[in-house]
Amino acid sequence: MLPLYWLTVQTVGTAIRGGWRPEVSGLEHVPADGGVVLASNHLSFADQLFLGAVIPRHVAFWGKKEYFTGTGPRGALNRGLMHGLGVIPVNRAGGAASDAAFESAVPVLARGGMVAVFPEGTRSPDGRLYRGRTGALRLAQSCGVPVVPVGISGTDEVQPRDLLGRHRPRVAINFGPQIDVAGADVRTATDALMASIQRLSGQEYVPRYAEKKKAA
């Protein structure tokens, strides 16, 4: 485990586990080693924090490429944090640029690492679960690794001030059995994956892609 990631788990992760006491089930489905893709619903930025806090191994998340290309002292600090946490850069432009981001995750999986993917492609705009894109399945197939579905609930209500106050939303993280996607049709397998995530998260399902929020 990367030193900075380990330190973050020991500090931020400990605060999350002690402060919000997330309910975790199915953690035995997450392999202790070896390459694996975590495929989760996406309600909030806090999803990454909670996943990192409850999984006892390094999880590689995605970060916008701008964090890696900034200039000056702030840019250098961001780059150092991203590399220290093992973040994978992603171009939010989509298309071929996003495909290149998936390619950058291949070495992580080849080394036996764990990569978290949010198949919806963006945070849910209304708390419902939207149709999944096939990238997670294509990535898993290309690397010959299994997929572990994850259903998260409650993180859309988490605010930093909750740790100091009495209101702490109930957060639950449910892991499902590993899915072997070798040889499967990626569209069919992705739909089955989203059905599994729906059962784990309890969300209402919407059979269309979620639209990304436009910057103001």
Give me some keywords for this one.
216 residues, alpha/beta, Glycerol-3-phosphate (1)-acyltransferase, two-stranded parallel sheet, 7 helices, 39% helix, globular
Q: What can you see in these coordinates?
A:
The chain has one domain (3-61, 93-206): Glycerol-3-phosphate (1)-acyltransferase. It is built from seven helices and ten strands. It has helices spanning 3-20, 46-54, 66-69, 72-85, 96-110, 135-143, 186-201, and strands at residues 23-25, 36-40, 59-60, 62-64, 88-90, 114-117, 129-130, 147-153, 172-175, 205-206. A six-stranded mixed β-sheet has the order 1-9-8-2-6-3, with helices on both faces. It has a two-stranded parallel ribbon with strand order 4-5. It has a two-stranded parallel sheet with strand order 7-10. It is globular and about 45 Å long. Residues 36-155 form the Phospholipid/glycerol acyltransferase domain.
In short:
GO terms for molecular function: 1-acylglycerol-3-phosphate O-acyltransferase activity. This protein has one domain: 3-Layer(aba) Sandwich (Glycerol-3-phosphate (1)-acyltransferase), CATH 3.40.1130.
